[in-house]
Amino acid sequence: MTALDATGLRYSYPDGTLAVDGVDVTVETGERVALLGPNGAGKSTVLQLLGGLIDPDAGTVRYFDETTDADAVRDRLSVLTQNPADYLFNPTVREDLRYGPAQQDRSESEVDRRVERVADRLDLGELLSKPPFRLSGGQQRRAALASALTVEPDLLLLDEPVSNVDAANRAEVLALFSELAADGVTLVTSTPDTELVAHVADRVVLFDETGTVAARGSTREILTDTELLTDCDLRPPQVVRLFDGRGDIPLTVAEARRRLDER
């Protein structure tokens, strides 16, 4: 089944600036796909179009081979934008996490179960009673992610999901994404960070600085093409630069360590 099928997306900002022109994105159920490109390439706009947060000037987005109405699949679709305030607007973090499943008419016990499970996984237990505006930037990012996850979506769209998150919590968040993928959740991540891509995606849609789709391919194909990444104003991952020209190039430090241990 196709989780997401976008065709011919076109969008202009209110001032008339063309942001997205003729973008096609297809994501199969259970896939992990990255929208990779430099800042200003229109990736966040594409993600908002895919999530039904804004309407395209032209083109369509179809969900789960069923409908082009994003609101009809809100129980199965969750979008994490760059701005935590889009999710954190209640007096406490707990109430923010309860908001989504409560809109799904879940029982009180089911809502509480979801909140506690996600809060525990993202180490938010001590923050549940706090006002969101009292949290640090990284804590707000984790709380916003938790709010997106309490609806238990089948399709999760993420815009720079570990921005401002410290190293320890970043590792926990990435481990959680791996668990979600293993459970069959479809993940689409927008990012300018080539170091992140190998951890969140098996396939990449690459944008250049003009917002045009420059290439599509497996994560390994895209990340090891250093010339292509440079042409798109992106810096190849450090480990790729280190091993470039030395045969089978690892994509992460962990993979490089395994290769060296094997040798």
Automatic annotation (TrEMBL):
Assigned keywords, A-Z: ATP-binding, Membrane, Nucleotide-binding, Transport
InterPro entries attached here?
Answer: AAA+_ATPase (IPR003593), ABC_transporter-like_ATP-bd (IPR003439), ABC_transporter-like_CS (IPR017871), ABC_transpr_CbiO/EcfA_su (IPR015856), ECF_ABC_transporter_ATP-bd (IPR050095), P-loop_NTPase (IPR027417)
A GO molecular function assigned to this protein is: ATP binding
The listed locations are: Cell membrane
Q: Which residues form the ABC transporter domain?
A: 4-235
The UniProt entry lists the main location of this chain as membrane
Annotated membrane topology is:
Peripheral membrane protein
Q: Which Gene3D superfamilies match?
A: P-loop containing nucleotide triphosphate hydrolases
Give the family from UniProt: Belongs to the ABC transporter superfamily.
Q: Which PANTHER family match?
A: ENERGY-COUPLING FACTOR TRANSPORTER ATP-BINDING PROTEIN ECFA1, HEAVY METAL TRANSPORTER
Instruction: Give a short account of what the protein does.
Output: Probably part of an ABC transporter complex. Responsible for energy coupling to the transport system.
Q: What is this protein called?
A: Energy-coupling factor ABC transporter ATP-binding protein
